[in-house]
Design goal:
The chain is of the alpha+beta class and 137 residues long. The chain contains 4 helices and 6 strands; from the N terminus they run E-H-E-E-H-E-H-E-E-H.
């Protein structure tokens, strides 16, 4: 049975926010008011700031919106993977990438405990090489 149900390259934003209550709320509210939907999000905190990685419905519009508000944001390509929700899928993905010497810089994923599939967002060191390695899983 195929483990990866869909695989696409998409744009992810890395947004740098003050690590203060309400900072994320203000960004999310501005996105919603601008008609931008957030499809995936993770937050990594440090002492003085947080790095919010997000996949949104309109990354160009989101970058402009953030820039107008003085929020530092960058874009990069990631893999957006829909996969079966079963044991060992991430191990197979990591193994396939290691065999072609592609490093996983970071990943985040989610699924419900009984959901048949889940979403994996993965930042490989080489997007095209990773796509090729994962296309047969």
């Amino acid at each position: 049975m195929k483990k990866i149900l869909s695989l696409e390259t998409t744009t992810q934003l890395a947004v740098f926010l003050e690590n203060r209550p309400g900072a994320l709320a203000r960004v999310c509210e501005a996105m919603a008011k601008a008609g931008i939907n957030i499809h995936a999000l993770t937050v990594s905190d440090t002492v003085d700031h947080a790095v919010v990685r997000m996949i949104v419905s309109d990354p160009t519009k989101a970058l402009m919106l953030l820039g107008e508000r003085g929020v530092l944001a960058f874009e990069n390509d990631v893999l957006f993977i829909e996969a079966t929700n079963e044991r060992g899928v991430l191990a197979r993905i990591a193994d396939a990438l290691s065999r072609v010497e592609v490093n996983i810089e970071y990943t985040y994923f989610a699924s419900g405990a009984t959901a048949p599939k889940g979403i994996i967002v993965l930042r490989p060191s080489n997007v095209e090489k990773a796509r090729q390695a994962l296309s047969s899983l």
